[in-house]
Design a protein that fits this description.
Layout lengths: L1 E7 L5 H13 L8 E7 L4 E7 L12 E2 L5 E9 L2 H10 L12 H9 L9 E9 L4 E6 L8 E5 L2 E5 L2 H6 L9 H10 L13 E2 L4 E6 L2 E6 L15 H19 L6 E4 L4 H14 L4 E6 L9 H11 L2 E6 L4 H13 L8 H12 L4 E3 L4 H5 L9 H8 L2 H10 L4 H10 L3 H7 L6 H7 L19 H6 L3 H27 L4 E3 L5 H9 L13 H10 L2 H4 L18 H11 L7 H11 L4 H20 L2
Parallel strand pairs: 13-14, 13-16, 14-15, 16-17
Antiparallel strand pairs: 1-3, 1-9, 2-3, 4-5, 5-6, 6-7, 7-11, 8-9, 8-10, 11-12
Helix pairs in contact: 2-3, 6-7, 6-20, 7-20, 9-24, 10-18, 12-14, 13-14, 14-15, 15-18
C-alpha cells in the first residue's frame, strides 16, 4: 500500500518541478511511512513520486519500478493478489524481473499487452505506468473502486495523485469548491466521479483507465460490473452455498499474501466472522482481530458477538471504545483525511478501529462489499414506491411531491413520481431536495444548473443488464455509494494511520460469482443475504448465524444529543467561513435536531460539509 503521484508534460523549470514533486510526496507520508522517493524523468518533462508502506518484498520494493531497460516505469497503490502467477507467465514470455514485488508486474504486463493489460490484474489498485519512449502516461483504478486516483490538467502540466491533498500541496492547483459537486453531495452524501469537491480536480471512476500521449486523452472502462446469466452456475441452494464458500475461502487465502502479519476486523456479524474464520484456518493463533465497543449505546454494541467469535477461532483479540464525546475531536481530522465531504455517519467509529489495528499490524481483512453484492440492506426489499407508481397517476404523484412538506411522505412521493425505475432507485439515498439546498446555501454556492441526482443514476448499459429490480438496486450501490463513499472512506481513514484494509468480498472471483447469481439467492422470504446467511449457518456459532444484519451501526440521534449537539451547533453557526446562509440554517435547527433517521442524516451531512470547508477552504 502506498501513495503515488506525478507530473507529466510540464512547462516548469527543473528546480520548480522538483519542489512541486517534493511537496506532493510529503503530503502523502501517512500513506507510506516506510520510505519515499522522487524521480525526475526529463524525457517526459515530469517526474514520479511515491510513499511506501512495505508489505511485500520489504527489501527491494522501492517505487517507481522500471522494466529491464528503464523505458517503462510503474507505480502502484494497492495490492495485486495474482502477481505471483502473472510473474511466472511473464518470465516464460521472456521478461526479466529484479524484485519479488507486485509493483513490478504492471510494467512488464504493459510491455506484453499494451494499454489493455489492466484486466489481467486481480486486486485493488490505483496505478500509473509511464512509457518514456512513447511519451505516454496510463492511469488505472481497480474495478470495485477500492483505491483512489485524482488528477488535474494545469497550465504547468498534468498532475495525478492518490489523494487530492497531494495535488493541492504541489502549489499548481488551487483549493476552490465545485458548486455542482457540493450540490450532489448534499443530495446523496457523496461526490461521484469524475467530479470532486474541488474545482479543477477530477478522479477516475472505478474500473476506468485514462491514457495521455501525443494524440491527446483517451479514457475507457476496462472493468464494468455488468449482470449476466451463467449456465454453469449451480442452481440448487446447496450447490450455490458450496461454490460461494469455496470462492470466499480462496479469496481470503490470496488476501493473506504478505511479508508482514495480516489481521482482521471482527464485528461479530456474518461478513467479518466468515473472513476471520477462513483467515484463522491459515494463520491459527497468529491471527489478530480487532473490534469496537459502544459502551454508551448497548443496543448498537456487538462486543458479545465479536468476543464469542474471537474465542471460537482462538485469535489474539483487541478492542477499543468509542464514546460520543470523541466526535468533536475526531471530526476535523476525519474531514482532513477524507479529502472530500462524506455522508457516512460511521466515519468516527471506523477511524477508531483503524487506529487500534494500526498499533498492531500493517494490514487487515475487512468485510466491505458483502452487503452491496449480496443484498444486505433493507431498501433492496422495500416495494412500496414501486407499487405506488404502478397504480397512481404520475402527474398526481409529482404534484404531491411538490406540495407535501419535507419529510418521509414527500420523499415517498418523490420516489414514486420519478421518471424511470433507475431514478426511483437513486432517490432512496437522497437527503436534500434542490429547494432545500437553495434555502440553506448562500446564493453564490447555488449550482447554476443543478445536476441533482443525474450523475448518480445507474448507467444505461448496467440498467439494461439487470435481470430484475433487485439487480438494479444492488447496481445503484455497487456503482455509486460503494466506491464513492464507503470504499473512499475506508481508504482514507485507514491510510490516515498507515493501515491497509483488504476486502476479500470484492475479490474478482467473489464479485463475478455475485453478479452472475440470481436474486433469489440474495433476497428470499423477506430476508437479506440468503447465500451469506446459509454459509454462516454452516460455519459460525448459532448465536452469530441467527443474527439479522446490523453493520457498523451508530445511533441516529448521536449528533443531536449531548455532548455532540453543542459541537454541531457551534461548528455550523460559528465557523469563520461557511457556504451556508447562517440565518436560514439557524431557522432550520429545530428540524435538524429531531431524533429521527432522516433528520440525523441531514444534520451529519451538513456537519461534514462544514468540517471539510474549515479544513480546506476556511
Amino acid at each position: 500500500m502506498c501513495g503515488i503521484a506525478g507530473i507529466f508534460d510540464s512547462s516548469l523549470p527543473e528546480d520548480r518541478l522538483r519542489q512541486a514533486l517534493a511537496a506532493m510526496e510529503q503530503a502523502m507520508v501517512h500513506r507510506g511511512p516506510d520510505e519515499g522517493s522522487i524521480r525526475l524523468i526529463p524525457e517526459v518533462k515530469g517526474g514520479l513520486v511515491a510513499r511506501r508502506l512495505s508489505l511485500v518484498d520489504l527489501e527491494h520494493g522501492s517505487q517507481p519500478i522500471p522494466n529491464e531497460d528503464e523505458t517503462v516505469w510503474a507505480m502502484l497503490n494497492g495490492e495485486i493478489y495474482n502477481h505471483v502467477e502473472l510473474r511466472r507467465e511473464l518470465i516464460d514470455q521472456g521478461h526479466r524481473f529484479r524484485t519479488n514485488c507486485d509493483t513490478e508486474v504492471p510494467s512488464h504486463l504493459y510491455e506484453q499487452h499494451g494499454e489493455g493489460f489492466l484486466p489481467h490484474l486481480h486486486g485493488m489498485f490505483g496505478l500509473a505506468v509511464l512509457d518514456v519512449g512513447a511519451r505516454r502516461l496510463l492511469l488505472g483504478r481497480d474495478g470495485p473502486g477500492m483505491k483512489p486516483l485524482y488528477y488535474a490538467g494545469t497550465a504547468n502540466g498534468f498532475l495525478f495523485a492518490s489523494e487530492a491533498k497531494a495535488l493541492l500541496a504541489s502549489g499548481l492547483v488551487k483549493a476552490e469548491p465545485d458548486v455542482d459537486a457540493l450540490d450532489v453531495f448534499l443530495a446523496k452524501g457523496f461526490v461521484p466521479p469524475p467530479m470532486t469537491a474541488f474545482a479543477g480536480i477530477s478522479k477516475l471512476a472505478a474500473g476506468e483507465r485514462l491514457v495521455i500521449d501525443r494524440t491527446g486523452e483517451r479514457r475507457a472502462f476496462f472493468s464494468r460490473y455488468v449482470y449476466e446469466n451463467d449456465p454453469e452456475m449451480p442452481t440448487t441452494d446447496e450447490g450455490v452455498v458450496d461454490e460461494f464458500g469455496r470462492r470466499l475461502e480462496a479469496s481470503v487465502q490470496s488476501h493473506l499474501r504478505a511479508d508482514v502479519d495480516v489481521g482482521a476486523l471482527l464485528s461479530g456479524g456474518w461478513d467479518s466472522s466468515l473472513t476471520s474464520l477462513y483467515a484463522s484456518r491459515v494463520l491459527g493463533s497468529k491471527l489478530k482481530t480487532f473490534s469496537i465497543i459502544f459502551p454508551e449505546d448497548p443496543d448498537k454494541d456487538e462486543s458479545r458477538f465479536s468476543r464469542l467469535m474471537a474465542k471460537r477461532i482462538g485469535s489474539d483479540h483487541h478492542e477499543i471504545e468509542y464514546r460520543r464525546a470523541d466526535f468533536a475531536e475526531l471530526a476535523p481530522r476525519i474531514a482532513r483525511a477524507l479529502d472530500e465531504p462524506q455522508g457516512s455517519a460511521t466515519a468516527a467509529p471506523a477511524e477508531r478501529i483503524f487506529y487500534l489495528a494500526s498499533r498492531h499490524v500493517k494490514t487487515v481483512l475487512g468485510g466491505e462489499g458483502a452487503d452491496e453484492l449480496f443484498g444486505g440492506y433493507t431498501w433492496y426489499r422495500n416495494q412500496l414506491p414501486y407499487l405506488t407508481r404502478a397504480i397512481a397517476p404520475r402527474l398526481l404523484l409529482k404534484l404531491a411531491a411538490r406540495v407535501t412538506p419535507e419529510g418521509r411522505f414527500r420523499r415517498g412521493f418523490r420516489q414514486a413520481s420519478a421518471d424511470t425505475l433507475a431514478a426511483v432507485d437513486a432517490e432512496w439515498m437522497r437527503s436534500f431536495t434542490i429547494e432545500h439546498k437553495q434555502r440553506l446555501l448562500k446564493r453564490e454556492f447555488w449550482s447554476a444548473n443543478p445536476p441533482d441526482l443525474a450523475p448518480t443514476v445507474l448507467p444505461t448499459d448496467i440498467v439494461e443488464s439487470c435481470r430484475d429490480s433487485v439487480d438494479r438496486r444492488l447496481g445503484e450501490d455497487v456503482h455509486g455509494r460503494l466506491p464513492s463513499a464507503i470504499l473512499q472512506q475506508i481508504d482514507r481513514l485507514s491510510m490516515m494511520h498507515s493501515l491497509e484494509v483488504r476486502s476479500p468480498f470484492l475479490d474478482r472471483g467473489v464479485a463475478d460469482f455475485a453478479r452472475k447469481l440470481p436474486s433469489r439467492f440474495k433476497i428470499r422470504d423477506g430476508r437479506e443475504k440468503f447465500v451469506v446467511r446459509k454459509l454462516a449457518e454452516r460455519l459460525l456459532p448459532p448465536e452469530i448465524a441467527g443474527r439479522r444484519k446490523q453493520g457498523l451501526a451508530y445511533p441516529q440521534n448521536a449528533f443531536s444529543t449531548p455532548p455532540t449537539d453543542r459541537y454541531a451547533r457551534e461548528l455550523l453557526l460559528e465557523s469563520p467561513s461557511s457556504p451556508f446562509d447562517r440565518e436560514a440554517l439557524e431557522r432550520e435547527m429545530p428540524q435538524l435536531f429531531q431524533h429521527d433517521l432522516g433528520a440525523g442524516l441531514k444534520l451529519y451531512r451538513l456537519i461534514m460539509l462544514q468540517a471539510w470547508w474549515n479544513e480546506y477552504l476556511g
